[in-house]
Amino acid sequence: TIAFTPVTSDDKVDFDGLAAQGAFCRKGGVHGIAWPQIASGWKSLSEADRTHGAEVMVSAAKGGRTAVVLGVQSPDFAAVERYAKQAERLGADAIICIPPEGVTDPGALLDYYQKVGRMTALPLFIQTMDPMSVDLLVKMFETIPTFRHVKDEAGEPLERVTELRRRTNDQLSVFSGRGVQTQITELELGFKGQCPTVSLADVFAAAFDLFQAGRKQEAFNHFGAIMAAGSMFSTGSADVLIARGVFKPGTRTRSMSMAPSPGSAARRRPFFGARDPAAISLVLKQYLGPYLRA
User: Fold this and answer.
1) Are 108 and 133 in contact (CB under 8 A)?
2) How confident is the model at residue 255 (pLDDT cuts 50, 70, 90)?
């Protein structure tokens, strides 16, 4: 699950809102939370924001089963190491790193991630982007002992997962992103995890748990409820967290432009309007109540 970065009316990071997401995920049985990433608007954050935010996130998620994964990417490689070392000191469960902007050469990416992998003993998630190939990921898996998880958003992940699993003897855990619009298909193909935003993360987590328990019809029904809700409001938006009482009314978030994901055009035309938490709250109460865990 990817956390938002809420901000106050004067555009300062709202650390209470950041902590509230960790507590929400802990209460809702969400398996893990990552911050800061693309949906968190990480490029807009200062180093002070990130270091304090990391402390807040680790503290907020304590006491439950929610793993905390801290983003360490930065244009400044020295800062990458500072973030990674801090994550280890804080007791984070893993680190995640987006590839450096503009670097597409496979050899350069391999060298970069080998260096990141040596910074700490923490498990390393790699966030893929085009044109990172299956061959490159397999080479990384073979040469970076801490690299055992990938959030795959390069090419068509549904077409890549079977080969990734086969060539790593199913030891590389493949996670999905892109709004998790194909959750049941992903689970059938052997994805080990999924990364929606926090908004309905508890429902996604419940569907995942049900599927893993062999209760596939119930998992399908949970995911179907998310898809139906997506015809009525933008299920991945921070407004959902306002409607659910996690964020304060009027909360805004830092954002970053992202490549459109499948179905995103439809989600940008929600029935009730993308900025109406009150209407979203009514829909949640009427239709999703039985599925919510937090």
Assistant:
1) no
2) confident
